[in-house]
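We modelled the chain as a single entity of 379 amino acids. Its sequence is:
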Amino acid sequence: MRSASEYISRRAHGVDASGIRKVFDLAAKMKNPINLSIGLPDFDVPELAKTVAIESIRRGDNRYTQTQGIAPLRERLRKDLSAEMGRDVGEVLITSGVSGGLFLAILATIDPGDEAIFLDPYFVMYKHLLTMAGGKPVVVDSYPDFRFRAERVEKAITPRTKFLILNSPSNPTGVVMTAAEVRDAVEVARKHGLLIISDEIYEPFLYERVQGSGFGVQGLPSPAKSYENTLILRGFSKSHAMTGWRLGYAAGPEAIVSQMTKLQQYTYVCAPSPLQYGALAALDIPMGDSVDAYRRKRDLVFERLSRKFELVKPEGAFYIFPKAPTGHTASEFVAKAIENNVLVIPGNVFSERDTHLRISYATTDEKLARGCEILCSLV
């Protein structure tokens, strides 16, 4: 008789368990840890959005929606995105989180052996979703400052390269691509006939926009503004703290979005029905106060950690990616931090290197200050 392990596919064996989830599980067993590990907003879903979602449940909106999502939400997102991008972005697909959108996009475009390029450090899912689809992840080093360099990306392009993933603001570094970097990325993609998948889940969290350091009143520089072969992926998980609602959306070339919609029929079926109505209401709720609060948290953590750590100041999202102290790998330093009741993530979860650590400042100011104090004391 076979053991259960003999039934496991090579696909499953090719994917490591997420280092983030390991820390998440560890946190559940610890007593009052200072948890700086998870990208989970510490504010709650706006009350109006919750009320509308509850009313939707009570009204009976508990059945499947169309695969692509409810029409009022899709139409509103298409209108808003088109105004932002300066052109009609086309049909919108409501996905089960941005991770669901990523998975569908990769399934719709990658054949076995196809390659996709993204910068290192990278969001942990990129590499593993490509592996599951039979594709080849190609990581391009962006150390030490985590900036986009067209010449490095261009060297990695081969005849099998299908698309380029851009993540701005970045998880795990907090770096935001400048308008010039986006132009460079678009030029590379256009020259080599590549699709751009633009992961913009942290789009609202831009901290230098008001100060005028390059982002300007137009907000996030998105490749979709100048390059039609861009698939935009955004969602509500971070902007409105709806991580458990699993709501994202995709917009881009019709041929790709239609294939993603078809594949959603056989995977996620549709995004959660009543919660889509709550998300529609959320689009009219100003979230500027939350962004301002996270700008202050960014300033707090940067000021405290820069006393002892080598780091790049984040311009968006809610992460900072300091270098581990000399003489330590990131994993070794994270082990010391956990021994002192502070949970952070070793950088090798997001990188081919084990030199940095990711800290999430999506927590209370009190915990953040105390966590920074402990981390600095360990250097």
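As a brief sanity check on the tokenised model: The first helix runs from residue 10 to 13. Residues 173 and 280 are 30 Å apart (CA to CA).
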